Amino acid sequence: xxxxxxxxxxxxxxxxxxxxxxxxxxxxxxxxxxxxxxxxxxxxxxxxxxxxxxxxxxxxxxxxxxxxxxxxxxxxxxxxxxxxxxxxxxxxxxxxxxxxxxxxxxxxxxxxxxxxxxxxxxxxxxxxxxxxxxxxxxxxxxxxxxxxxxxxxxxxxxxxxxxxxxxxxxxxxxxxxxxxxxxxxxxxxxxxxxxxxxxxxxxxxxxxxxxxxxxxxxxxxxxxxxxxxxxxxxxxxxxxxxxxxxxxxxxxxxxxxxxxxxxxxxxxxxxxxxxxxxxxxxxxxxxxxxxxxxxxxxxxxxxxxxxxxxxxxxxxxxxxxxxxxxxxxxxxxxxxxxxxxxxxxxxxxxxxxxxxxxxxxxxxxxxxxxxxxxxxxxxxxxxxxxxxxxxxxxxx
Length: 396
What we know:
Layout: H1 2-5, H2 18-50, H3 55-74, H4 79-100, E1 106-109, E2 112-118, E3 121-123, H5 125-142, H6 149-167, H7 172-189, H8 193-213, H9 215-225, H10 236-248, H11 273-306, H12 310-334, H13 352-395
Antiparallel strand pairs: 1-2, 2-3
C-alpha cells in the first residue's frame, strides 16, 4: 500500500530489469530537478499574484503526488490492458478537445481556448491525448498489415481529426509534436516510404496554411528570425529569454538569483523556465541537463531495440519522442533556435495536465522495459526446463 502513497518506497523494484530501474530513478531525478527550478522560477510571480510565493510550487507538488500514484499503478499494469482502453480514451479526449472549441465552454487564456475549467481546476485535453495517442498509434501502425482498408481509413481520419481539433484551439506546437510522433511511430513500424513522404508533405502544408491564416503565428516566425527588430513588441519574449541565458555565463548567477524572472521574462514558470535555469546554472548547468536528457533517450532506445514485441517497441519509441522531443523543443525556443511556442518543459514547467501526461508516458516506457525483461526470463526458464526434461528422458 505504501508504495502507492509514497511511490519512491517500492520493495518490488529490485526485481525489475536494469533498464526499468534506471529509467525509474532518472524519472525521479528529472522530476526533482524540475521542482528545484520551478520553486525559484515561480516564487516571485506567485508572491505578486497571490501574496504567497509557494502557491504554484505547492499546487505542483499536489499534481505530481497524484501523478506518481498513477505512475506506480501504471508500471504494474500490463500494456495489453492499456491498449484495450486506448481507443475509447482517444475518443473521450477527442470529445473534450472539441468541447474547448465551443464558445463559452472552452476557457480562453491568452487568446487560445485549450483548456476546460472545472471549478478552480484548468485541464488541458491535448496534454492527456499524448499518452493515448502513443498507445493507439503503436497499435494501429504496429498492426497495420492485419487491418483492412476500412479500419485503416477510420483511424487515419480519427488521427487527422485530433490534429485538426488541436490546431483550431489554436495550438500549432502541440499539433506539430503529436503529428511528428505519429509519423515517427509509423516510420519505425516499417510503413512504405511513399506513405511517409506524402504524409510529411501534408503535414508541412497544414503548417503553412495555419501560419498563412493566423497573424500571430506569422509574427512569431518573423520575431524568431530577427527578435531585435521589435524588442519591446513581438520579439520581447525571445529577447528577454536570450538576455537571461546570456546573463548566466559559464557557471550561472546562482540558485534563486535570476533577475529576468523578476517580471522581465514572460512565463518564467512555464514556457520559458529553461531561460531561468540557464541564467541561474549557466552553460555548465545547461550541458548537464542535456546530458541527462541524452542518457534518458539512450535508455529508452535500448528498451525499444531489445523489445521483440512490435507494438510495445513502438510504444517505447513514441513515449521517448514526446518526453525528449518536447524538452528539446522547449529548450530550442528559449535559446532562439526555434520560433516561440507554448510547449511546456516536461516535469519542469508548472501545470497539472502536462505533469500527469509526462508521468503517464514515463510509466509506459518503464512498463515496456519490465515486460520485455519478464518475457526473456520466462523464455530462459522454459528453455532450461525443456533441456532438463530432455536430459531426464535420455537418462531414463
